[in-house]
Input
Amino acid sequence: MSDLFASLAQQPDDLSYEHYRELIDTLNRYARAYYVLDNPIVPDVEYDRLYRELEAIELYSEFKDADSPTRRVGDAINTSFAPVAHKVPLMSLGDIFDDEELVDFNKRMLEATGSEVEYCAEPKLDGLAISLIYEKGVLVKAATRGDGTTGEDITANAKTIKAIPLTLHVMKDDMVHMIDASFAAQSIPDYLDVRGEVFMPRDGFKKWNEEAKAKGQKVFANPRNAAAGSLRQQDSRITALRPLTFNAYYIGQCDFENDSDHLPDSQYGRLQFLKSLGLPVNEHIKVVKGISGLRSFYESLGALRPSLNYDIDGTVLKVNDIATQEELGFTAKAPRWAIAYKFPPEEAMTKLLNVDFQVGRTGKITPVARLQPVYVGGTTISNCTLHNEEELKRLDIKVGDTVIVRRAGDVIPQISGVVKEKRDGSEQEVVFPKVCPECGSALEREDGEVAYRCTGGLVCPKQQCQAIEHYVERAAMDIDGLGERIVEAMVSSQMIHNIADLYSLSEETLSKLIIDTTNEKEEEGKVRLLGKVVAKKIIANIDKSRQRPLNRFIYALGIRDVGATTAKILAANFKTIDELMQASFEKLTSINNIGGVAATHIIDFFKEEHNRTVIERLLTEAKLDLQACEQVSEMSEDTKPFLGKTFVLTGTLSTLKRDQAKELLEGLGAKVSGSVSKKTYAVVAGTEAGSKLTKAQELGIQVYSEAEFIELLGQYNITLS
Ligand code: 5U1
Output
């Protein structure tokens, strides 16, 4: 728990406001160089050092300026998502998909201009369109596109995105040479409505998903969903943790105080203007001429697409000259002077070699297409899910068919169609099995479900393997060394049948496990022994797993619909596994976030005699110690029990230090405030508590003594050693 008690920063020597402002301005300048100019001027460590000094000054002073980069951590105040009426509508764009349509578009523009048209050609980012309003250079509102006329207020969340400046700046001479200086802003606009895209870069998305997976949390299907989900968080502290970024691409409105100031008269110039104010614009924007310019931009960007660190789904082609744009005007939905020329989805044709039927941990049967390996969307695909029997029927797919594999970004590949013209009569029907392909047990389908399940339960060796593989996962009991191949060998040799058997394994027995190395060595029928060294490590890891906290154990059991988050909620509400095993449907569904379906699966799981016996053995023979508590810091944001609740600490606490109590509460999602109001959720009152306690009592607010507070922490598995 030591990370919860991080020591306070030392008091800085210089606490003057001048020094404070200098730090903010320097850090913001460094951030602009990094995000806007793509040209860092100091190493990360230097930025971090100054940032920490700034944090320390804010801790030891009253200073907290609106443009301080520390403001980007978000706060617990719920983002309202209140409706925002856009003064100037956020238009969508017309789409075109092929060269013929491109020629048509260029012809229309040519008719309007009479001579070869100059375009500002831009990548079409696959993220979320937003509008940012700056008044006198200060970000005052951020809103989603919504229906184009009314969006949602996401200001608190947008402020956590480091690429979005909190304040605008006129670029100084030391940096202005890095942009097209002739378009640089001479003054801060009085009012600026800038439009752009929020998106999650591919590397950030990948890292985020890998970490979420390791923690047993929800993963995002693609960077776009990740960006949308992150921007629509109620708690901006969660958005602050997500690797989002921003590119500006259009000015909705811009007013200057001084009449002599004006905007550049081209789209390209306006983007440079935005850049000079500190707003990042995309690095691949180009001015091109005529149909040949459009074609070569589209082609070269298409070729770059796989190597970019963000998803794009096409190009946006805009008439560059603003006067011509104004002449052409808008239809009801979109500008006439711009078009989105979309890339085709990443698709490839290949052969369906076979369909296997896989048995999942809960017995679910999934048809899996075995494909002739094909390169699409940046990776080679050789397997692809066919989901269920309905999907097989929908596609009318046969073994030997030529199929189209589609993959966009990091989305799981799909078979989007069958090329029936390529059939030659040799194709074979795909027959959905009537019994489990692994154990021969009957298959059944629950009402309203599309999936068939094996009824063999843990008699089915595949389900045995999957249950064990799940139990040892990192987010579950975290037993390193027990990969799929080893678990399969243990089960097929009948060395073990279930998770309880793991704990009675000896080093001697395990070392003699025969491993099939067919794939390892690419030689059919080759085997090897596991050996003493590996066996020793695995046994030590199994031994360590006796100390895991209750929530991980609950998750490790593999109950349907009980993921890592639900398991944490259950562990927070039931102190022992016995209590959970006795819980009624009513008791379970009375818990926030536990629905009827999960409750039914929990009850069914514990009703099963076999499961009860295994748990009994784990507790008595294997002696699992499930009392150890999970670190609160690992609790996922959305399950923190005091999220959005405000606590006040008052009086003298004797067991806990005030800072510790504050950190613990914050770890549970609470905000700790210095004064009592109607909005206070609870007050923790130590000895000699004075007026705050009186006020809490007058307002009828819950008051905890220190002992009660410690008991309360205990309910969330926090014990004080
Ligand atoms: N790059 C870029 N994307 N995008 C989307 N520019 C751009 N412009 C848009 C939209 C909807 O709209 C303006 C042309 C109004």
User: Anything to note?
Assistant: Residues 91-93, 122, 124, 129, 249-250, 316, 318, 335, 338 surround 5U1 (CB under 6 Å).
